[in-house]
TrEMBL record:
Pfam families, A to Z: ECH_1 (PF00378)
Family from the record: Belongs to the enoyl-CoA hydratase/isomerase family.
GO biological process, one term: fatty acid beta-oxidation
Species for this entry: Streptomyces cavourensis
Keywords: Lipid metabolism, Lyase
Protein name stated in the entry: Enoyl-CoA hydratase family protein
GO terms assigned for molecular function: lyase activity
CDD domains, per database record: crotonase-like
Source domain of life: Bacteria
InterPro entries for the chain: ClpP/crotonase-like_dom_sf, Enoyl-CoA_hydra/iso
SUPFAM superfamilies: ClpP/crotonase
Length: 254
């Protein structure tokens, strides 16, 4: 698991890039989520940083949690751990002291929606798709963050069906700033970040706190509420039954 941070070259002064690289699909284990949270927090605490770009290496932005790690745990330790770790990572992006620009390519699923949905701005590659396949994986969660990207009824339809939406569709809803060829994604995200970073650093921090303060939904509390139902699905055996049936209805409801 790799979470790396780097300052940018000339032309994007005050911008820090946080990059996740966890092959094959950037599905993160418990420690990976904590590492990501700490990297974002550290960037936001740096007085020289005025904007953070959250990026990922490989074929996709993020495929959620490492399901294999959960399957290897006969109890609930890993589930509790990943619940807490995801909440920390999502909160770190949301509460970062400076604006966060998400550079999203390929798949942005599950936890990826949690990260992108809590970012301040999204630049997406033409190949980017967003969705919550949770009901096919015996889980729940991140509807809180999907609701920040699409209108309420579309969010519910996407959630119930586990369908995805394209970057172009999100652009039409106004939740993606720009859709660009994937080869130009990082440069485009850095261009936006550099424009933001040219503002006064102290005033940017005040603006971020002010905007978070007027949000109509407490995203951390809302997401933790969702996670309680994920835990219930696991305790009742529903999660294992659904995963075994690849998301389809099988047997009677628990």
């Amino acid at each position: 698991m790799t979470v790396s941070t780097a300052h940018t070259a000339t032309g994007a002064e005050g911008v820090r890039i946080v990059t996740v690289d966890h092959p094959p699909v950037n599905a993160l284990p418990v420690q990976g989520w904590y590492d990501l949270a700490e990297a974002v927090r550290a960037a936001g605490r740096d007085p020289e940083v005025r904007c953070v770009v959250l990026a990922a290496a490989g074929r996709g932005f993020n495929a959620g949690v490492d399901i294999k790690e959960l399957q290897r745990d006969p109890g609930n330790t890993a589930l509790v751990g990943v619940n807490r770790a995801c909440a920390e990572a999502f909160e770190a992006v949301y509460a970062c002291e400076v604006p966060v620009v998400a550079a999203v390519q390929g798949f942005c699923l599950g936890g990826g929606v949690g990260l992108a949905g809590n970012a301040d701005a999204i630049v997406a590659g033409e190949d980017a798709v967003f969705g919550l396949p949770e009901l096919d994986r015996g889980a729940l969660g991140a509807a809180t963050h999907l609701a920040r990207l699409v209108p309420q009824h579309l969010m519910r339809t996407l959630y119930y069906t586990a369908r995805t939406v394209t970057a172009a569709e999100l652009l039409a809803h106004g939740s993606v700033w720009r859709v660009v060829p994937t080869s130009e994604l990082l440069d485009s995200a850095l261009e936006l970040a550099a424009e933001i970073a040219r503002k006064d650093g102290h005033l940017l921090r005040l603006a971020k706190a002010a905007l978070n303060g007027i949000d109509p939904v407490d995203v951390r509390r809302s997401y933790r509420f969702e996670q309680g139902f994920t835990f219930e699905a696991s305790l009742t055996g529903t999660a294992d039954r659904v995963r075994a049936g690849f998301g389809s209805a099988s047997g009677k409801e628990a």
